[in-house]
């Protein structure tokens, strides 16, 4: 029992408040309310950060699906003195109309179809595409240059990592064939090269491909490129992105046949060009793709310390020498194939 002294000096005892038995329960209720408030606050903070984390991935997926593309600033005539025609043609699946240029080479039945990369248009100035178009024309090739849907200035579409773009490229190949091409070479860059490989799975109208800095949209390369800009954990970032892509652009990663492409032995000659300092498409992918090819005229050139889509700028003479030798072999292979077909028919 506690003892205390009154102002008169008489000791008195202090006992628990017997006249207020509800004091202890009120204190307990107050503590429970405080605990509930703390838990609610902690949950609110947790869900806020979860929302922000998912929203960040949604923003990344939206940006990737809607690249900013510069407008056309020139044309083949102004840039290289080449006569050209403005052309339009449907994607093979009829989903949209494509816009481009056709640069004819008099009397030629050979055509090169350029397949530009992500975030660029048919000019792809950093390659630079006009120089290669001029070079192709000097080798007596007709040239088709066109914009993918995500680069269109009249009816802009979303980028789908090759799902829609492969149908658009197949439309360009069909256009070339309908305009007299008996030998068609697809010359692709970055995602345009990956798109070409996807198109190559379903067409018999391609006689060869030249693939510069091949970018194939798959989980590994997607995460590799995200990490270039922001340090996110691989898990669960990839799972979130795989869920968001179909919502934002209608295409899931599982709809892109990257596994089939990486395992395919293409029937036509393919030249892979890649740099070891490529920070967007790691060069082992090109090595793996090249290793799968059994066509005797397929080849690869892995360039030490070269960068994404800059091989021509960094090594112009060797680049054109290898392309020229490859195209010569393609024509040789075409002649041998025609002779074999003729012999079979006889």
Features:
single chain, 346 residues, eight-stranded mixed sheet, two-stranded antiparallel sheet, 11 helices, 10 strands, 46% helix, disordered N terminus
Main β-sheet, spatial strand arrangement: 3-4-6-5-7-8-9-10
Main sheet summary: 8 strands, mixed
Shape, per Cα inertia axes: elongated
Strand content: 15-25%
Distance between the termini: 121 Å
Overall average pLDDT: 89
**Structural class category:** alpha/beta
Tell me how many strands there are: 10
The portion of residues assigned to helices is: 40-55%
Please give the count of helices. Answer: 11
SSE arrangement, N to C = EEHHEEEHEHEHEHHHEHEHH
Q: Stretches where pLDDT falls below 50 for ≥5 residues? A: 1-7
Please give the radius of gyration in angstroms: 32 Å
Brief sketch in words of this structure:
With 346 residues, the protein is of the alpha/beta class. It contains eleven helices and ten strands.
Question: In terms of topology, how is this protein built?
Answer:
Blueprint: E1 2-5, E2 11-14, H1 23-65, H2 76-80, E3 85-90, E4 97-103, E5 110-115, H3 129-138, E6 142-146, H4 163-178, E7 183-189, H5 191-200, E8 208-212, H6 219-229, H7 234-249, H8 258-263, E9 270-275, H9 284-291, E10 299-303, H10 311-314, H11 316-345
Parallel strand pairs: 5-6, 5-7, 7-8, 8-9, 9-10
Antiparallel strand pairs: 1-2, 3-4, 4-6
Helix pairs in contact: 1-7, 4-5
């Amino acid at each position: 029992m506690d003892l205390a002294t009154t102002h008169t000096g008489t000791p008195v005892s202090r006992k628990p408040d017997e006249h207020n038995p509800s004091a202890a329960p009120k204190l307990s209720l107050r503590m429970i309310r405080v605990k509930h408030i703390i838990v609610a606050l902690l949950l609110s903070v947790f869900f806020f950060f979860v929302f922000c984390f998912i929203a960040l991935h949604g923003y990344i997926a939206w940006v990737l699906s809607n690249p900013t593309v510069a407008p056309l600033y020139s044309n083949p005539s102004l840039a290289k003195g080449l006569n050209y025609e403005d052309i339009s043609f449907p994607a093979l699946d009829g989903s949209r109309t494509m816009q481009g240029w056709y640069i004819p080479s008099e009397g030629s039945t050979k055509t090169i179809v350029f397949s530009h990369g992500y975030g660029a248009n048919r000019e792809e100035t950093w390659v630079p595409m006009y120089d290669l178009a001029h070079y192709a024309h000097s080798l007596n090739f007709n040239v088709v240059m066109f914009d993918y849907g995500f680069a269109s200035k009249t009816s802009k579409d979303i980028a789908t990592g090759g799902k829609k773009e492969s149908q658009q490229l197949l439309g360009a190949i069909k256009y070339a064939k309908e305009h007299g091409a008996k030998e068609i070479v697809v010359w692709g860059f970055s995602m345009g090269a990956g798109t070409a490989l996807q198109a190559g799975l379903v067409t018999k109208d391609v006689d060869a491909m030249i693939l510069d800095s091949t970018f194939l949209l798959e989980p590994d390369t997607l995460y590799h490129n995200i990490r270039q800009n922001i340090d996110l954990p691989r898990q669960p970032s990839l799972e979130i992105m795989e869920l968001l892509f179909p919502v934002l652009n209608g295409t899931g990663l599982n709809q892109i046949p990257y596994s089939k492409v990486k395992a395919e032995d293409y029937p036509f000659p393919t030249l892979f060009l890649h740099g070891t300092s490529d920070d967007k498409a790691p060069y082992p992918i090109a090595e793996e793709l090249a290793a799968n090819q059994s066509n005797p005229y397929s080849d690869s050139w892995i360039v030490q310390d070269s960068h994404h889509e800059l091989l021509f700028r960094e090594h112009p003479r060797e680049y054109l020498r290898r392309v020229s030798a490859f195209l010569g072999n393609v024509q040789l292979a075409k002649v041998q194939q025609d002779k074999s077909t003729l012999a079979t028919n006889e």
